[in-house]
Amino acid sequence: MSSKKVAFFVTGNVHKFNEARQVLAEYGISTAMLNLETIEIQDDNLENIARMSAADAAKKSNLPVFVEDAGLFIKALNGFPGPYSSYVYRTVGTKGILKLMENERTNEAYFLSVVSFYNPQETSESKLFKGRVEGRITRQMRGEQGFGFDPIFEPLGGNGKTFAEMTTNEKNKFSHRAQALRKFVVGYRRMV
Amino acid sequence: MSSKKVAFFVTGNVHKFNEARQVLAEYGISTAMLNLETIEIQDDNLENIARMSAADAAKKSNLPVFVEDAGLFIKALNGFPGPYSSYVYRTVGTKGILKLMENERTNEAYFLSVVSFYNPQETSESKLFKGRVEGRITRQMRGEQGFGFDPIFEPLGGNGKTFAEMTTNEKNKFSHRAQALRKFVVGYRRMV
Description:
Two copies of one chain form a homodimer. Chain A is an alpha/beta fold. Chain A has helices spanning 14-25, 46-61, 85-91, 93-101, 168-171, 176-191; strands at residues 5-10, 29-34, 65-74, 81-82, 108-118, 127-137, 153-155. The first copy, chain A, has one domain: Maf protein, CATH 3.90.950.10. In chain A, strand 3 (65-74) and strand 4 (81-82) form a beta hairpin. Chain A binds chain B through residues 39-44, 49, 77-84, 87-88, 90-92, 96, 99-100, 102, and chain B through 39-44, 49, 77-84, 87-88, 90-92, 96, 99-100, 102.
């Protein structure tokens, strides 16, 4: 039997899972995808959403688990779509975001990721790890990789590429999610 | 002492409270506004959101309480902004909705309201009462009354007026919220 550590990632999103799997593998940790219905609250603050989801998933599964919540925050739209990025993607989509941005003067935006870890063996609160990447909203969709709003987000320092024009490996070099996951991994090795 | 019944409405929205107060008064019931922080989950289905919020508020306050959740569902936008209407109003606003609707062929939309009642003395589930009003999204904002997306929603049978061009009394004649509240009142008189 291998003594390799396994981290349980509660998500239904296979793209997120693949990004996480690659990051955690760099640290010798295996990632297991746990597709479990969890409570996700409405809150303008991603941290509160992730904190509650992790606690809920840990109690339901009786496993030490982590969840990841992310959002695209667009300055000219007062932070929209923010914590509701997934719903907005499923309804008005990237097309809707591009339309809303048409006559806006600034295209500044950032992606924020919050990883929340909860161990049901401990009585403490969820532990949070954050990652953030600044960038801008493009005028048109570019690229076929990634998921969600990746085709319209060009991160700073990404050589003018959108996230959707990068391989998972490239995206993981500086994405919000990879940043949060790396902070989590450092904590994880001490926690379990 | 008066034997008048009092219903506890958990909301932080004074516009909603005033609409409810007027409807319930028609049935001889007083409405008390209870501004209490409750859990609001993310769910595409308003019923699930209202059900959980009512149970949470009742447990926190130890009172029989009702909550009301509403959303504007726009056909051409796949139901957007739906359950997240309040967040979308606070970020992209009516201006954003009008922009998204610019080249859409159909302007059909509906407002849905779900009232959820929970009595902590009983062990049963929250009771739900729904109201729905069909209408269309206007090309421009009209009217100063009401709140939220009222200035861009013209209900069917409203003589071409938007909700924001109506007094509370007029709006209550056929609004989604008033319909749900009337159903609730009928049930309420039996429940408490």
